[in-house]
């Protein structure tokens, strides 16, 4: 099993920044693609960004492209999501996910999920 723990959520004004982190533990972190998803109240969960095991390629939803940056660090086993120029429509619970493959993207199936961290952007 892989355990994922998100942190870094909070309340921020529109135009501000937040940095989310996902710490992985349990089975090896290597050879796993990672991703961030989000779910706003009353909406389906949606893909935000993904990164392959080798850190390339990366994928982004059109709604966050140019504002969010996903990165990973094998020591410690963390994946981060730097979110800049935040908008009220970015308000959601953000989830970290991992899959049993070194490659991932918006259409991939992810096998492990964190509990989520709330991000609220005020206008």
Describe this structure in words.
This protein is mostly beta strands and 123 residues long. It is 0% helix and 50% strand. The chain contains no helices and 11 strands. The strands form 2 sheets. Strands 2, 4, 5, 6, 9, 10 and 11 form a 7-stranded mixed sheet that branches. The protein has a 4-stranded antiparallel sheet with strand order 1-3-8-7, with no helix packed on it. Strand 7 (68-73) and strand 8 form a beta hairpin. It is globular, with a radius of gyration of 13 Å.
Kindly state the percentage of residues in helix: under 10%
Number of strands: 11
User: Which word captures the global form?
Assistant: globular
* Low-confidence residue ranges: none
The secondary-structure element order is: EEEEEEEEEEE
Proportion in β-strands: over 45%
Number of helices: 0
The rounded distance between the terminal residues' Cα atoms is 40 Å
Structural class: mainly beta
C-alpha Rg, in Å? Answer: 13 Å
What is the mean pLDDT?
Answer: 93
| Largest sheet: number of strands, sense, barrel closure | 7 strands, mixed
Compact summary:
With 123 residues, the protein is mainly beta.
Notable characteristics:
123 residues, globular, seven-stranded mixed β-sheet, mainly beta, four-stranded antiparallel β-sheet
């Amino acid at each position: 099993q892989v355990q994922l723990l998100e942190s870094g959520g909070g309340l921020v004004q529109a135009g501000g920044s937040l940095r989310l982190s996902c710490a992985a533990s349990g089975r090896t972190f290597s050879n796993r693609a990672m991703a961030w998803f989000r779910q706003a109240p009353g909406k389906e969960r949606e893909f935000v960004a993904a990164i392959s095991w080798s850190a390339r390629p990366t994928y982004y939803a059109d709604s966050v492209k140019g504002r969010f940056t996903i990165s990973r660090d094998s020591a410690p086993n963390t994946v981060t999501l730097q979110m800049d120029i935040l908008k009220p429509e970015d308000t959601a619970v953000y989830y970290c996910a991992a899959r049993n493959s070194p490659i991932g993207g918006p259409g991939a199936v992810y096998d492990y999920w964190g509990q989520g961290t709330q991000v609220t952007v005020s206008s």
